[in-house]
Design brief:
The complex is a heterodimer of chains A (631) and B (523).
Chain A (H helix, E strand, L loop, with lengths): L4 H17 L8 H24 L8 E11 L2 E9 L1 H24 L6 H20 L3 H19 L6 H32 L4 H6 L6 H18 L8 H4 L5 H10 L4 H8 L1 H5 L2 H24 L3 H21 L5 H28 L17 H15 L5 H15 L2 H30 L21 H22 L3 H10 L10 H24 L12 H7 L4 H40 L2 H35 L1
Chain B lengths: L4 H17 L6 H25 L8 E9 L4 E7 L1 H20 L16 H21 L3 H10 L1 H10 L9 H37 L4 H9 L7 H18 L8 H8 L2 H26 L1 H27 L4 H22 L2 H32 L10 H4 L1 H14 L6 H16 L1 H26 L15 H19 L2 H17 L8 H5 L1
Antiparallel strand pairs in B: 1-2
The chains are: A mainly alpha (631), B mainly alpha (523).
Main location (chain B): membrane
Keywords (chain B): Membrane, Oxidoreductase, Transmembrane, Transmembrane helix
Membrane topology (chain B): Multi-pass membrane protein
């Protein structure tokens, strides 16, 4: 059975190679081929999953070693896979949502002449993401890690002729590289500490080293997670990444890739468990991002950017949960899965709306769309109810568990974290209700596009609506299904471990509090956007609103400090290299060897004469040595 | 006596050079094919050497030894270890691509000129460089190596000064002046380095009484040859200076951007991918092996210079407006990594450095040659003159991107393997150095992606409109290089297998052991 693991990756990888190298003759079938291979990977995943269920909880991990990758003295890196419950969860999420989004893209990208290439990139992404989650060591994980970064780069910049898309793609890659530096250093630290970077040996030996080492490794892993999962301070790329086609936003920048940071931290649980200081930083990053993303989400009029803020915020929840240690690991992953369903569904819904509205993204130009796009409205609406945590839907179960776990951290910290997660839940209810109202309710505020075409909103084709319906099912039922009899907990516990913590308040109280803040959030949004007509032009807004529209000034900061500063630095270095380094070295040589006169001659045009005389010298030298032999 | 395979591998391109130069003026195309045939023949011989080499065997294999200048004990002595073999194979591999890429770069501008034979000269010089570089990788006699180290400057000088890049801004006269400035600068820097090395070579002979690498190493090992600390350090400095100029190491690097910018693209590849490797190779072979104590003494300074090269080179690459100069500065950054790996003196660092030399050769060749195809089409080296190329020439843009991704060491491509080994090797010995060097991976992403964005994406510039995509000849150049980058990124074992034993020998030369991991050491 373990021999099937490589097949998971092989199928989409084959698709990527064939589609990207195949040329125009594959244009007509490319999208079908890409979808079929993503689907094949899903089928393999299901087979492996069924097999895994048939074995006892402690005996579920499968291993497959393909070959020795970098054999160097004292350094062993293998291309080897490990499929345990945690990896399996991701594999199922990636291949199922991945396949659905392939299907959706068939319709969404129908009129794009480069559709074949789009599917090639999507397949490349799926393959890299699978490598990331089934690698059995950190270095191979790194391959997947940067592989998804590459796919993300290619897909954000898919419409490269738009300078904004090309810039956004570059930005995403660069910010992620800063995070990758963290992953590099973490792996190096593991190597010098444990002599290996394979999951098994490293995670078993964490007890044998100092807390300081574990803290250092943990913080470096967190830096990596911040890059990939768009957490403060490396969050700035995610909003811009919405330049990519919407299926990309759904798959990569909502459901799967951006959650890789959560995977990394949960996978490295043993390291973080031994490093409370690092865990504290993880929790703080999660809490800050949770609020940061939520605030940004409130101020955006671009539907995709509002959802992107929401994604940041929801991943903040997961990171926070992961930072809680064994209290939160399982719930971080559970929220990750349910979020994967409803956020992917919401993005596909947004794409469907844009599809019907001449690619308009400004929600101030939507309004009243529920009558024109009933399927989109219902599926998006279910996703909306799920994300705000409406009782009985997926988000209700998974988010509630995180809020409980935050309180269960205990002490003052527990109260602070609990309060933050509750506040986040209120803001989530507010901004999502705002999106819902501005898009589907109220008066029509439609405007003709740049070429003067009036929008004729219509329901999207079946290839698009069916994936939305499937994801809506997940949004509704997944959370409940996972929670009945603590199924998800029992499934993951053998890998991640679990502890109940020390809850100062009962679960019922937490749920009640969550319901209260939910109602408040929805009510405030209704007062502001439901009861009153939405102005077609955004009002000036308070200072906070204006800052939030500019992503809380993150780019302004980066621009002034990093971009400007960097430009000045490189420009002055170019000057220094040309006049100083070159000059000093030439000058030293000149003063030592009396070359200055010759250099002046060189500038006077005697270069050739001079060079020839130098050759003469060398030639004589060589001739002399040859002659000596003869003598 | 067995067949002198190494001599044959070096002699074949030399014969090819003479044969190519002798082709009559009118038969230009025949000269090109002849040169290509000889370079392919050399590749076959290098392949045979690879096949005959036994990784677990003695340190130097395929050895040849003949008396040459008896009075001074100079011998014609050849032999390869895994490191020399890998680099010889790299050289033999790249030259056919260099020739193919430069197919039209030396066509005479006036077709009726009958006496001047630039095309024949161009390809003959390339083969001459190949012969000398191959021989320098297999020479185990210090004096023989020195002669080659110096002699290869001659064909290189003519290649840089005599065959400029036709894409230049400003007048032809101005371009010619810049070209000869670049060529003379190249020559002066390297000659000064060489002269200082000559002094050290003579000094070594005075101390050791022989030029033979194996004899000196054996004498040092059994204690029959001892050097005073100061003598060893002076000699080390003499050798190291010459190699640092060639490598090039900051602050001796300023000749490289001029030379690579002004030379034709294939010659730029020849400089950075092949000839410069002699410098870093020689650090491993001569500095570490002949002067282990002095090498360790100099390590702190060399590591700092390497770090400066990595970061300084990358920052300057970010600031360049000229595509070829950008790649030149990127190479300076990469040479910093190679030198860092060598002087970290760990198994991972040195294996990484050797792999880095090979991988950098292939990746720079891929990136630079595609850049050359681009520049030839538009007639400009300035980044600002491009925009939106991917729309009109997607294959060109795609291969350029892959070359760029290799340059920024994307996992899955060969340079990642070597760069990570260098970093981990440096980190194991000097954690702070490893961490500082890691910033290089962010800077590399900046210069590569900014270059790609400005040239390939965005609206199609008017001058780029109608640009043709890669032709068959160009694809034949690029596709195998890319395939190799992927293969060596996924399965570098064939390379590490031959390199590892050589690195272990070097490690025992310098009497260094790898730092033990904390947890295993505790057990």
């Amino acid at each position: 059975m373990e021999n099937l693991i490589a097949l998971l990756v092989a199928a989409p990888l084959l698709g990527a190679v064939v589609l990207l190298c195949g040329g125009r003759r594959l244009d007509r079938v490319g999208h079908w081929l890409g979808t079929a291979l993503a689907g094949a990977s899903f089928v393999v995943a299901v087979v492996l999953f069924t097999d895994m269920l048939g074995r006892s909880a402690d005996d579920r991990a499968l291993h497959q070693k393909l070959f020795s990758w970098i054999p160097v003295e004292g350094f062993q890196a293998d291309v080897a896979f490990q499929l345990d419950q945690l990896s399996m969860t991701f594999v199922l999420l990636i291949t199922s949502v991945g396949t659905l989004i392939h299907i959706y893209s068939i319709g969404y990208m129908e009129h794009d002449e480069r559709r074949r290439r789009f599917f090639g990139y999507l397949n490349l992404f799926v393959a890299a993401m699978l490598i990331l989650v089934i690698a059995d060591n950190y270095l191979l994980l790194y391959v997947g890690w940067e592989g998804v970064g590459l796919a993300s780069y290619l897909l954000i910049g898919f419409w490269q002729h738009k300078p904004s898309a090309a810039t956004a793609a570059k930005k995403a890659f660069l910010v992620n590289r800063v995070g990758d530096m963290g992953l590099s250093i973490a792996i190096m630290l593991m190597f010098t500490t444990f002599g290996t970077f394979a999951f098994g040996p490293v995670l078993e030996a964490t007890g044998e080293t100092s807390e300081g080492k574990l803290t250092a490794i943990g913080l470096m892993l967190l830096l990596a997670a911040c890059g990939k999962s768009a957490q403060v301070p490396l969050q700035s790329w995610l909003g811009d990444a919405m330049e990519g086609p919407t299926p990309v936003s759904a798959l990569i920048h909502a459901a799967t890739m951006v959650t890789a940071g959560v995977y990394l931290i949960v996978r490295s649980g043993a390291i973080f468990n031994g490093a409370p200081d690092a865990q504290l930083v993880v929790v703080v990053v999660g809490a800050v991002t949770l609020l940061f993303g939520a605030i940004v989400g409130c101020a955006k009029d671009d539907i995709k950017k509002a959802l992107a803020g929401s994604t940041m915020s929801q991943i903040g929840y997961m990171i926070l949960a992961a930072g809680l240690g064994p209290i939160g690991y399982v719930f971080a992953i559970m929220h990750l899965v349910t979020h994967g369903f409803f956020k992917a569904g919401l993005f596909l819904g947004a794409g469907s709306v844009m599809h019907g509205m001449n690619d308009e993204v400004d929600m101030r130009r939507y309004g009243g769309l529920r009558k024109y796009m009933p399927v989109t409205f219902v599926t998006f609406g279910l996703g909306y109810l799920a994300i705000i945590g409406f009782p009985g839907l997926s988000g209700f179960f998974s988010k509630d568990k995180i809020i409980e776990a935050a309180f269960a951290k205990g002490g003052t910290e527990g109260w602070i974290l609990g309060a933050v997660t509750l506040l986040g839940a209120a803001i989530t209810a507010f901004y999502m209700t705002r999106v819902m109202l501005m898009t589907f309710f109220g008066e029509k505020r439609w405007q003709p596009d740049a070429e003067g075409h009036d929008p004729h909103p219509h329901e999207s084709p079946k290839s698009m609506t069916i994936p939305m319906i499937v994801l809506a099912f997940g949004s509704v039922f997944a959370g409940g299904f996972f929670s009945i009899g603590d199924r998800f907990l029992h499934w993951l516990e053998p890998v991640t471990g679990h502890s109940h913590g020390d809850a100062p308040v009962s679960a019922t109280t937490v749920t009640a509090a969550t319901m209260v803040v939910l109602v408040i959030g929805v009510a405030v949004a209704w007062v502001m956007y439901g009861r009153k007509a939405v102005p077609a032009v955004a009002p000036r807004g308070s200072l906070l609103t204006r800052a939030a529209r500019r992503d809380l000034l993150q780019d302004d900061f980066n621009h002034v400090v990093l971009v400007r500063g960097g430009e000045h630095l490189t420009r002055s270095l170019v000057y220094v290299d040309h006049s100083l380094v070159d000059g000093v070295v030439n000058g030293t040589a000149a003063s030592m060897g009396g070359l200055s006169g010759r250099l002046r001659k060189l500038q006077n045009g005697y270069a050739r004469t001079y060079a020839v005389s130098m050759f003469g010298g060398t030639a004589v030298l060589i001739a002399a040595t040859l002659l000596m032999r003869a003598v | 006596m067995s067949f002198p395979l190494l001599t044959a591998t070096a002699a074949l391109p030399a014969i090819g050079a003479v044969a190519t130069a002798a082709v009559p003026a009118a038969r230009r195309t025949a000269a090109k094919w002849l040169a290509l045939a000889f370079s392919l023949g050399t590749l076959v011989l290098a392949g045979i050497a690879l096949a005959r080499f036994e990784p677990g065997g003695s340190r130097y294999q395929l050895t040849e030894s003949h008396a040459w200048i008896k009075d001074f004990g100079v011998r014609y002595e050849l032999g390869v270890d895994g490191i020399g073999l890998a680099l010889m194979a790299l050289t033999a591999l790249l030259i056919p691509f260099v020739i193919l890429a430069g197919w039209h770069d030396a066509d005479p501008l006036e077709t009726n000129s009958s006496r001047w034979r630039p095309t024949q000269g161009f390809f003959a010089l390339i083969l001459m460089v190949e012969a000398m570089v191959v021989l320098s990788f297999v020479a185990t006699d210090v004096f023989l190596f020195y002669i080659l180290f110096e002699a290869m400057l001659i064909p290189m000088y003519f290649l840089i000064g005599g065959f400029g890049d036709r894409a230049h801004s400003g007048s032809d006269e101005n371009a010619a002046a810049q070209r000869s400035y670049a060529a003379v600068k190249f020559l002066l820097y390297n000659l000064v380095g060489g002269l200082i090395m000559l002094a050290a070579v003579i000094g070594l002979y005075v101390v050791a009484g022989t030029f033979s690498l194996s004899e000196i190493a054996a004498a040092r090992a059994d204690g029959s040859l001892t050097m005073a600390t100061s003598t060893e350090r002076w000699l080390f400095l003499g050798f190291f200076f010459a190699f640092a100029v060639k490598a090039p190491l900051w602050p001796l690097h300023t000749w490289l951007p001029n030379a690579m910018g002004e030379a034709t693209t294939p010659v730029a590849v020849l400089i950075t991918a092949v000839v410069d490797k002699v410098g870093t190779f020689a650090m491993l072979r001569f500095c570490l092996q002949l002067f282990p104590e002095a090498s360790k003494w100099a390590t702190p300074v060399v590591l700092v210079l390497a770090l400066i090269s990595i970061i300084y080179g990358a920052l300057l690459a970010v600031g360049q407006r000229d595509i070829k100069r950008l790649i030149a500065y990127a190479s300076i950054s990469h040479f910093g990594f190679i030198i860092l790996g060598i002087f970290a003196m760990t198994s991972q660092g040195q294996s990484g450095a050797t792999l880095y030399m090979v991988n950098h050769g292939i990746s720079t060749a891929a990136l630079m040659l595609v850049a050359g195809f681009l520049i030839t089409r538009r007639g400009s080296r300035l980044i600002a003159d491009y925009g939106g190329v991917q729309k009109v020439a997607p294959v060109l843009a795609g291969t350029f991107l892959i070359g760029g991704l290799a340059t920024l060491s994307l996992p899955g491509l060969a340079p990642f393997v070597s760069e990570f080994l260098v970093l981990v090797g440096a980190f194991a010995a000097y954690p702070a150095v490893g961490i500082i060097a890691t910033t290089g991976i962010v800077l590399a992403a900046i210069y590569v992606l900014v270059l790609y964005q400005r040239t390939m994406t965005g609206p199609v510039k008017a001058e780029v409109q109608g640009m043709a995509d890669l032709k068959v000849r160009e694809l034949v150049v690029v596709v195998p290089l890319i395939a190799l980058l992927i293969f060596l990124g996924v399965y570098p074992k064939p390379l590490t297998e031959i390199v590892n034993p050589a690195v272990q020998h070097t490690m025992s030369d310098v009497q260094k052991k790898d730092p033990q991991p904390e947890v295993e050491a505790a057990k």
